[in-house]
Fold:
Amino acid sequence: MRKRRVRILHEGHEYYLVDRGRTPSARTITLLKRLEQDGASAGGAVLVRTDIGDCLAIARWSGGAVDVAEGHESLREMFQQVVDRYLEEFRVGRAARAGKPHFFLSAGRLPLYTLARAQPDGLSVLVFSSREGARRAAAVRQAEEQQPIEVEEAGDLADYLAARATEGFAGAMLDDADPIFFCLDETGMPRFLRLKMDAARNRVEHLLLDSSGSWSAYEGEEEILPEIDQEAADRYMVDRLGDVPFFGFRAGMRFCRLARLGDSERPVAIELADEPIAGGQPFCPLFHDPEQGKAFLDENRLEGYEPVVVDDLRSLAAWCRLERRVLILQPDGHRARGGTLWLDGERVVLDSFSGLWYSTDGVHFERD
Structure:
């Protein structure tokens, strides 16, 4: 799902635009020319072998203007137009051929997202089945955004969602209610699975986006598998949330842990039978604040505990190492808000969506 390829015919020759999505350093689009089409010299182009045969990589884009290889300068204007058009179609989706129109929210031409517990590994792009629903959501969300929120119509929904997968989204949320999961079928083609709550029958419906742009009941008649590139999802979260230890981090904040009622000094580890965390082994949960600790206890129906402020994170990490317990921040929440911690010498290490962070005082986290 990550690689997108567009065939281009120009003056009798065959070209391909290849978008592999964002790499660790930048997003790059490559423009290839089929060798057998004209037998021209390569010039400054690089020969590449692909599944469509030998090609010349004659141009590339990494933001801004197209960079064209020596000997192919006459194609610069055409390639720039192709890339500009492709980037706009990538942003909104290709023109819809059929199906009901869908809408999305954008600010600064970037699609807006949510942190959905149903899709905890990355950002979920917001999609709406009606313009009015999108407008209502925009009015609520505007207080959180510095730039004006626009309601835009998506093109072909499948193409729009496939582009978001390439961009680094982990999934989508339809009408702030139904999660849409990015999947692949047996041939490697992108498919989109929607979970819809049927309140009348108290069950979850599984719906698959079909070629007509409609949602059809899915009962496992064809094999599809969830598809997510965790590295790409993490990089995109850094792009949108910032290069921070975790989402919600504040300078000087202190974590909270659980303690047994009447014994706040001794750390405790817990085990959740219905939701295995840390491989099903007992673990020590950490929280951003006491309220989130209380919510965790209520949700998991854990009695006899209370959240307490962690005065010495290094000592807690040392206790976890001694007891062979995993120290987990926001254990059943979104990946953006949590992470795993351990003691490395005199420092506490935090492994989160944005990478490794280190702390010597349990309050301030820095890169190595």
About this structure: The first strand starts at residue 4 and ends at 10. The mean pLDDT is 90. The radius of gyration is 25 Å. The CA atoms of residues 79 and 85 lie 10 Å apart.
